Amino acid sequence: MSENMIQLSVFAFVTAIIGLLTYMKCRGANRQQSTQNKEYFLAGGGLSWVFVAGSITLTNLSTDQLVGMNGNQMALLAWWEFSAVIGLIILAKLFLPVYYKYNCTTTTELLEKRYNNKHIRAVIGAIFFLGNAFIYMPAVIYSGALFMQTMFNVDIPLMYIAVAFATLGAVYAFFGGLRAVAVSDTYSGVLLLGMAIFVVFLALNAINYDFSDIPAERLTFIGDNDSPLPWHTLLTGMIFIQMFYWGTNQTITQRAMAAPTLKEAQKGVFAAAGIRILIVPAIVVIPGIVSYKLYGDIGDAAYGRIVGDLMPTWLTGVFAAAMAAAVLSTYNSLLNSATALYVCDIHEAYIKKDPNVVRLSGWVTLLLSILTLTLVPIYQQAESIINLLQQLNGLLSMPILSIFIVGLVFKNIDARAGIGAVIFGVLLYASLTFEFSPFYSSWHYIHLMPVTLAACVSFALLTNRFVFGKKIQFASRDDLEVA
């Protein structure tokens, strides 16, 4: 039997096992119309802490992380993962109690209830939706297709692989809902983490644990001003990036909102934080650093190359199944959360109050998948996918985080002031960070994030007072605590 047939057979077998286990766990789920939103988008509130932790971990850890971070081929990118632990703690202790108090289906529902206005929910839901559609989903599909193409060294156009991923992901998201996504995430996550740790040991063994001849700037955790992550950015915008991503981002937070109780959700988030600090930093930087010594500066192709060269043939099929599951689970999660935002925040509020959720979700999923494939060629032109993602993320993250902060800290805020602050923040950040702008700043884009955040909060408060004539009040403890 040829090597490719062995790889394909193992790949198909492992993928089928994951699918079977997921089906057995999820069959019989309640899909009655009266609870359809909660069932489809929050798994009926039935995720135990194990599945919350597994789904959060694998939704975040996909090829855009493994390929993108290892593609930088330097140690300091691990700071993204170390700082994520703080973001997860903030989610568990600050945001989750409020989401559970207000019985939210989407994170943006909290905004509607705090500002007493459905329009602010719709605007932010639309921004999250567009962020998934134009930034995250194409990046995941592109990086997954690139990994498969590189690891197996196949002469298949990257676009063909991308189409296969997008099609399978769309089918899975449509038929499974969040429950199936979270369960398969957990099963796949155990496999992926195990295989990724094995890759770390294979890589270290390939260089006999000898890091000599690797430039110091590739090994340091203290980035200079010309590095992708200068050390001083850890003291400015990094914490706010993590607060936004883990605390308000529907794709991530949705998993933690799907537990039966707040305490169960918090257990899952803390477990995910433990995985992130103990395992994830090593698997997203060490293979890339080793690949620099073995192959030189090869960018985003580093991870697929080192796995394809060092892993035994029969295990590459297992690893391919784990990586494919990671791509599909992240893509499924993005599809599911984007659909939830459209259905709950926009369609039900403005078009039809009680739609057929499954059918409507199918149409949204189809349109999003077509858009994803249209954008993949653009991401092929990026020098570093992970750096591009973080820079684009700034357009949305700080303006959105600002109105969550204003909504939680204060009362008597006019929703129009919040919406205006978001629009102002997007324009401000774009004008400061993109080189074609006449207001372009040479500051690192992470430094510009707290500047944008502070400007947005100030804009909202000043507009609320001087344009809409409302005096702010600080929120009381009772406003935020779980009843």
TrEMBL record:
Entry's localization field: Membrane
Record membrane topology: Multi-pass membrane protein
Predominant cellular place of this UniProt entry's protein: membrane
Sorted UniProt keywords: Membrane, Transmembrane, Transmembrane helix
Signal peptide residues on this chain, from the entry's feature table: none
CDD domains, per the entry: SLC5sbd_YidK
Highest taxon in the source lineage: Bacteria
Residue spans crossing the bilayer: 6-24, 40-58, 78-100, 120-145, 157-178, 190-209, 229-248, 269-290, 310-331, 360-380, 392-410, 417-434, 446-467
Recorded family membership: Belongs to the sodium:solute symporter (SSF) (TC 2.A.21) family.
Name of protein: Solute:sodium symporter family transporter
